[in-house]
Specification:
Blueprint: H1 11-18, E1 35-40, H2 57-65, E2 71-75, H3 85-99, E3 105-109, H4 121-128, E4 146-150, E5 153-157, H5 170-181, E6 188-192, H6 211-218, E7 223-226, E8 232-236, E9 244-248, E10 268-275, E11 278-285, E12 295-303, E13 312-316, E14 337-340, E15 344-349, E16 352-358, E17 363-366, E18 380-390, E19 399-404, E20 419-423, E21 429-435, E22 439-444, E23 457-464, E24 469-474, E25 477-478, E26 483-484, E27 496-499, E28 510-519, H7 525-533, E29 536-540, E30 547-553, E31 560-566, E32 573-575, E33 578-580, E34 587-593, E35 600-605, E36 614-621, E37 626-634
Parallel strand pairs: 1-2, 2-3, 5-6, 6-7, 7-9
Antiparallel strand pairs: 1-10, 4-5, 8-9, 10-11, 11-12, 13-28, 14-17, 15-16, 16-28, 17-27, 18-23, 18-28, 19-20, 19-27, 20-21, 21-22, 23-24, 24-25, 24-26, 29-30, 30-35, 31-34, 31-36, 32-33, 36-37
Helix pairs in contact: 3-4, 5-6
Length: 636
Amino acid sequence: MKRTRLLLLPAAFLALLLFGLWPRAAAGGEGGGSFRFVVVGDTQSATGAGSFNPSVVPQLIQDMNALNPDFALFCGDLVAGAGSVAGTVAQWEQWKTATAPFTGQRYVVPGNHDFFGGAGSFAAWKTTFPWLPTATSPPGEEGLTYWFDHGNSRFVSILTDHETLGAVPPTQQAWLDGVLAASGDKEHVFVFSHHPVSFSQAEVLGTTSGAFWQSLVQNDVDAYFSGHWHRYQPSQLGKGGDTWEVICGTGGGCLCFSPIRPYQQVHGFLLVEVDGGEAVATFYADDDGDGSYDDPVDSFVMKSSTPPLAGLVAEYSFDDGTPADWAPAPLGKGIDGQLFGGAQLAAGNPTGTALELNGTGAYVEAGAIGDYNLSINGDLTLSLEARFDSLAPGVWSNTLLTYATNDFYTEDEETNYSYWLNLRDDGTLVSFWEHDDGVNVTLTSTQPAPVAVGAWHHYALVRDAAASTVTFYVDGAQLGASVPYLRNPTGGGRGMLYVGADTLGVTPFDGRIDEVRVYNEALDAASIAALASAPLLTVADFTAGATAVLATKHATPGASVLVYASFTGGGPLPTAFGDVLLSPPFVPVATLTADSLGFASTAAPVPPGTAGIAVWLQALDAGALALSNGVAETIR
């Protein structure tokens, strides 16, 4: 989970709080026509014996009911299954009894465990679950494959397991295509089944280039819900649309599939709230260990009538002495890192504390329940500062930054590389990613970077998805020509961020890395130049009643740096020195003095009772009369 943030506020700041002058956010109301539903799969026994998981399912139902959902979608593997139809039916009956207290309607689709009985399972399913829709089903799949409408939304159950455990037949794909094509007047369309798409080497639905996924994206489906893999893993797989795949096989099945990521392989359920054109998903789990699945541990916007937010999604400044992610919410999701292989944090750099790497396998790995937000398959900007002590030979050596994983299937879409940046020993920069089942895209700067051993430089990569180009920058200046490409990345939903090495510590970097930033937008040349040289303000640990770190970099050595705040907005107000990214009145926060490297920082308490207050901050380098970037934060 994201750690909370903090900041020193001076007496003037505190006075505003004490006299009640600090603006507070107004509470919003719900619009009409809204509804909510819950999603979960794989409620079978965790041991593989018996039917459902009795230690999980009853509590899930109770905690679902507490949120007043209209209905539930169960994405297959309701039970562990038996070697006969009669044995499986007996387990289904136990499942029905256990889930009967659910206050809404139960819509179910079978999974592979539900069909271990073999021939005759279809007929038994229809008899056991007589309330499921049949009038909208294709012939022979009544109550298995079907659709229903709720409000102005359509829900489609599609069978991905058969009595012989075979693949989806062409006739069923044609049925799905027709149903989705006829759903164009619906505000939201959701599809649910058992098997996911992104495990493309292990599953039956093909890659994102296949007919199944292409039918979803071409018909603007909000989300495809699945299970089978016992984890919570949402991601936007790409390949033509913004459809989400949400793997939610978290209903009780074994959490034993290695390698285990404890933050992802948990029991819980997904709540989806629909209100007009908006659909917001929240995953509930037992985060506090009290035995109830009532803790919201992740949330994301599944569909919105407004354009998705673009900006900073991850930031690692290392100035608080940790590899924590300080990108502000809502884009930042607290994907904190860990040090591996002898990686250390070292002070005395122009950028403050930096990551020190030994070139023999040291790196930072960053992962958390929300790390899917770093699997960026469209517009992208990578920005960092680095100083190398040596450069190893080889095409893939000296890795600066990458997002991927190699911990299970290495050439399927869920483990794809979403991006990569390394510096070859000839000075050229390399960008790399994968699409479909690990198909490579490799781009190299058209000229080498003018860099030298022991010198700090700013490196940036900008991927413009609309133009299909990658542009490299060094020290704020474009490095050679933009490089064209043909395919954007797809998948990548199970990746993690690696700083200073490829996945698992190979092709490591020898030197120091700092100010790592990842954006889900293609920054323009002026923004890259500002990141490379303009005064830079960072705020870490912004939490009421705690202590924050306020730092400025790239300032005039020895000059005063004045930090101001606003509680009314982020401007802009054009001036002769650039845009003031604050709205009046301006409140002085701190005066810092830059050291000989242009770096300054301070730490101080944030007043208690200020959580939830929005603050906009900006710094002025009094030596150069230059304004820093603006920082928008909400006190935690």
